[in-house]
Amino acid sequence: MIYKNFYINIIIRVIILTVTCFVFSLIYFSVKDLLILINVFLLIVLQVYLIIYKLNKTNRDLTSFFAAIQNDDSSIVYQKMSTDSSYRKLYRSFDDVNDRIRKLKIESVTRNQYLQNVVDHVGIGLLSFDNNDNIDILNNATKNLIRVPGVKKLSRLETVNKSLPSLLRELKPGKQKLIKIRTEDELLQLAVKASVFKMEERRIKL
Q: What is the arithmetic mean of pLDDT over 139-159?
């Protein structure tokens, strides 16, 4: 349905081109007027160019649309670019897909913010890291316990307890261990429990 008007447009152009070629033949064999022949020939060239341009325009628009998706750019409004009625349904479909992508992005951001707020307000300390020791989650309860600013790598926890990073790495899933840490003038004993899950190709320990 999207290409119905496009096909009709191309068919009409091909018919006109065929008629023009027929007229060119008649003039060549009957009238033999050089000026008219040149004008009709130029008209044929123009019609061929317009057909090729029309066909390539669809490819250009599709390439542009998929490039925008790859670059996470869903802000383009294709219907505003439409000057040809045969492309309006196609552009409308592009805009519908873009609207859906925008809504999914907003939903994803909202959901992530909601989960981050839940994690930050949980009274239990949460910490997660991957197999490269990159820390993903460090909620407020954990920050208040370790009191080390800007922790991005597990090795930074050595300032709290030198053996803490290795203890967390070696802690088996489902097992619980008591760990002593000193923060300023206070000695704390923590019950630490681990679980492991996979996210894409990353192994995450929580």
A: 79
Neighbours of 103 (CB within 10 A): 11
Predicted confidence band of residue 5 (pLDDT cuts 50, 70, 90): low
14: tokens are 């091909």
Residue with token string 């008007």: 5
The confidence score (pLDDT) of residue 179 equals 75
Residues 6 or more apart whose Cβ sits within 8 Å of residue 50: 13
Distance CA 132, CA 17 (A): 65
Q: Is the pLDDT reported for residue 49 higher than 80? A: yes
Neighbours of 98 (CB within 10 A): 19
Distances in Å between the Cα of 202 and the Cα atoms of 87, 128, 164 are 44, 12, 22
Sign of CA dihedral 159, 165, 171, 173: positive
pTM of the model: 0.54
Can you give the three-state secondary structure of the chain, one letter per residue?
A: CCCHHHHHHHHHHHHHHHHHHHHHHHHHHHHCCHHHHHHHHHHHHHHHHHHHHHHHHHHHHHHHHHHHHHCCCCCCCCHHHCCCHHHHHHHHHHHHHHHHHHHHHHHHHHHHHHHHHHHHHCCCCCEEEECCCEEEEECHHHHHHHCCCCCCEHHHHHHCCCCHHHHHHHCCECCEEEEEEEECCEEEEEEEEECEEEECCEEEEC
